Structures are given as C-alpha cells and as structure tokens.
Amino acid sequence: MALSAVVGFLFYATGCLLLKILTLGRYEMALKDFASFKSGKSIQVMSIIAIGASVYIAIIAFIVYVTS
C-alpha cells in the first residue's frame, strides 16, 4: 500500500466532508472506500483531493500565523 494513495484518500475524504458541509448534506461521495479510490481517479476526484489538501494547508498556515 503506497503512502501517496493513503494520503490521497485522506485528502479526498476531507474534501468530500467539506463539500458535504458546504452543500448542507446534498453532496454524495462517489468513492466510498479505499479500494474503489485506488482503482481509478478522474478529474472530479483530483479536484476534490485539491480541496482536501487546501484545508490542511490552511490549517498549517493558520497555526504558523497564530504562533508567530
């Protein structure tokens, strides 16, 4: 199991959670488990991964801002 796939799935799950919150529960996850995530990645999945990664980047930036 590659570390990049695990991190990608973590970012995907975070992005899906954020979209579910922002759309008030209307967004449905296309890939519900790790096996289906590893099998194929589309453009839509990659954009959700980017949303999830940006959440973690924003959290890190906020922590740096607060501590400095």
Summarize the structure.
The protein is 75% helix and 0% strand. By secondary structure, it is mainly α.
Describe the structure.
This protein is mostly helical. The chain has one domain (3-67). It has 3 helices and no strands. It has helices at 3-22, 34-39, 43-67. Helix 1 crosses helix 3. The longest helix is centred in the last third of the chain and has 25 residues, at 43-67. The termini are far apart. 13% of the residues are buried. The model has no long low-confidence stretch (mean pLDDT 81).
Give a quick set of tags describing it.
68 residues
Write the layout of secondary structure elements.
Elements: H1 3-22, H2 34-39, H3 43-67
How much of the sequence lies in strands comes to: under 5%
- Please give the count of helices: 3
Q: What can be said about the biggest beta sheet?
A: none
Structural class: mainly alpha
Average of per-residue pLDDT values: 81
Compute the CA-based radius of gyration: 13 Å
Helix content: over 70%
Oligomeric description of these chains: single chain
Total count of domains = 1
Give the tally of β-strands. Answer: 0
N to C succession of SSEs: HHH
Low-confidence stretches: none
